[in-house]
Amino acid sequence: MAAQSISLPWETNHGRGDSGDIWHRDQMLGSLFGVRNFLDHFGITFGVMDIEEVWGNPTGGGPSQAEGSPAWGGNGKGGSQTASYDAVTLLSMRVDLNKTIGPKMGSFNISALEIRGRSISQDHLYVFNPISGQEADRSFRLFELWYQQPFFNNSLDVRIGAMDLDTEFLISNYGGLYLNSNFGWPLIPSTDLYSGGPSWPLSSPGVRIRYRPSSKFTFMFSASDDNPPGNQNNSFPIQDGGDPSDPTNQNVGASASGTKFNLNTGALLLEEMQYAINLGKYHGGLPGIYKLGGYYDTAKYPSFYQNQQGEPLGNPNDLGNPNTPAWVRGNWAVYGIMDQMIWRPKNNPYQSVGIFFRGMGTQGDRNLITFAADAGINFKAPFHNRPNDTLGLGWGIGVASSGAQHFDMETDAIRQTTENHMELTYQAMITPWLNLQPDFQYIFRPSGGVQDYAYATTQRVGDEAILGLHANIAF
After folding, report:
1. In a 10 Å sphere around its CB, with 0-12 CB exposed, 13-18 middle and 19+ buried, how is residue 125 labelled?
2. What is the pTM for the complete model shown?
3. What proportion of the chain, given as a percentage, has pLDDT over 90?
4. What's the CATH fold of domain 35-474?
5. CA 96 from chain center: how many Å?
6. DSSP label of 176
7. Residue 257 has what pLDDT?
8. 317: exposed, middle or buried (C-beta count within 10 Å: 0-12, 13-18, 19+)?
9. CA distances from residue 247 to 210, 313, 447, 452 in whole angstroms, order as listed
């Protein structure tokens, strides 16, 4: 669900470590009076990252059904335009056991999240996926807990534990600049897998294997539980509407604390192959990374076409319970990703222009989205006196499945088709430990067309202009 901020392999951090004055160190608190340096002797590194965001939609949007028109059972007190605040604090600790225990050991990682604020997407925007990768239900939760062991001079490494897969799989490096969550963990797994799969802020127990036979090729495979909270019966809109107050089941039982470690549903098998060109300072060409991959989920999924009596799902005139979908076995998706630098002047090592594209597809009888794509262009160091800033323009599309459209027709609802989103963003490095990022987004036909509860008649939510400001602080 989250759009992670990912550094490109050919880009470097131009901060000055933890020494020096407060304006030039990588972390605001520096070495903490020598505590960080002392712990580093034992292989222990800890960090605190704080993300603060404010959002508003001057156009479009709609009230919740509970606050919408009385014609839909609401109290009529809700508005369509609003402002909201969300924030996340990430606490992390990594232990390099080569220093702590001895050579040929691996590393141990543990992290936790403190999430606060409100989700403007969930409350007012009715989009397929949140307009910010930081939106989530309020909680204090365990995030990741894993051990990684390298082999054969680091050409092979194995990670086992509770993992968030959206930092390694299905990710465009250039896409990590953008705030809309569709540019991070993609739209298809976010909407089609149970609870969005093992992606921020949820993790699942599993194993990940990475093999790098050369500097050009990387092969990755993971096997993890497909459903972090373990809830199968109220996860999708076709299952009696899902749970609008907890759409990704983040607060189901022990899932609210991140300590459930569910292993009782399906297995999510993910494979990815990466091919890199011109990486490293000794290559004269422009660098790029190309990825192909896919996943298969062994679990059962509710059908968009049939109820458990074999009748069309959602038709109130059919026999039995029209809103109890039949179960179908398995789910899959395939994808391709391109990150390619297209321009870099010889006289400026900071400046460059890169483009990215990601496309993904799946089947339509058990999924809300069958095709999604995003693309963009990033301009690194757009101004000569701002070497660490980045300007980006991105676009994305999500296409509702034939099954979702069939269900809409059976229930006499607005037929969902295609949602497009655009984002213009500028990431400014104020200091090495503080980034500010003003952001503008525009959503065309949110969720492909859904009811605006502000109106008593059938009318879809209008197109949305969204303004935001994102701050990232490393302590």
Report:
1. buried
2. 0.92
3. 69
4. Porin (2.40.160)
5. 27
6. G
7. 83
8. exposed
9. 32, 21, 15, 18
